[in-house]
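Bumping with the actual sequence this time:
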Amino acid sequence: MPSQHRIAVLCGVAALSTIGVACAPVVTRSHVTIGTASQTGIYYPLGGSICRLLNLDTSRHGLGCSEEPSSGSVPNIESLRRGRLDVGIVPSDVLADAVAGEGSFIAQGPTTELRILFAGPEEMLTVVARKELGIRAVADIRGTRISVGNPGSRQRANIDRVMASLGLRRSDFIDVRELSPAEQNRAFCVKELDVIVYSVGHPSGLIHDVTRTCHGILVDVSGPAIDQMLWKYREYERAVIPGGMYADNPAEVRTFGVRAVVVSSPRVPETLAYEITRAVFDNFDAFRRLHPAFEGLTTAEMVRASGRAPVHAGAIRYYRERGWQP
């Protein structure tokens, strides 16, 4: 059921005085539901962190908040469109497809009513190879046994684009499998695979496991062909995985990724969007301590949201109060 939001305008005027007291919009008691994804990914703790900070100030703004697991980004978009969710977390590439009516959204056409509140952490394409193979660049994965991710996954879409940009076909590999992250980890560790692919926020427990116990090395995803791909697909961002984050991987690794974007339904009023945005950025140091993937975030990159949708008027209002330009 969609949440119902009520906006009360409180206005006081001093009796028999020529001095008026300014009216202030206040959100009365209501409940905000944030659609995330599975509880094993980064979106669920992101939604939970937003709610935790919003709920700290319930006595002032009258809002309650809870995060809700979902089956993924496309269902989140549909639930936002229909008003079943107030706020959803989606990757910038899926949001771009929804706005343009492309990819999974061809049948329903462009979705123009969604509004961005702010961006979250990056999910980076991460390629891991067996250490003994000496693979350091993605152009060198030809002739290996590789898992490209299960159909419909983000890592599958990303590595397919990388392979196309490099002129690689499936016939250029000894074996190509379509495994989930957990399945490919097991296959890699028993030496059935040479290269595996993720699309994750860092640090990642899966990558910690495969580098620490199975001698995986992170592979650089850059070069002229990748530059051309990033120019074509503007929803991607260049990214760097810091050196020393994982065992036996002392050097930084260049790659690219998409950014989680916090998006509101068209039914979310300006005051509510303002309060959600304020809850995160007024408590930004606390927010960054709530999950390892948030530690490196800056206000500048979170305000510079991506995904081609407009920024919500309530978020813009907060940013202007802080002197930030979204």
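The tokens above came from a reply further down the thread. Confidence is low (pLDDT under 50) at residues 1-29.
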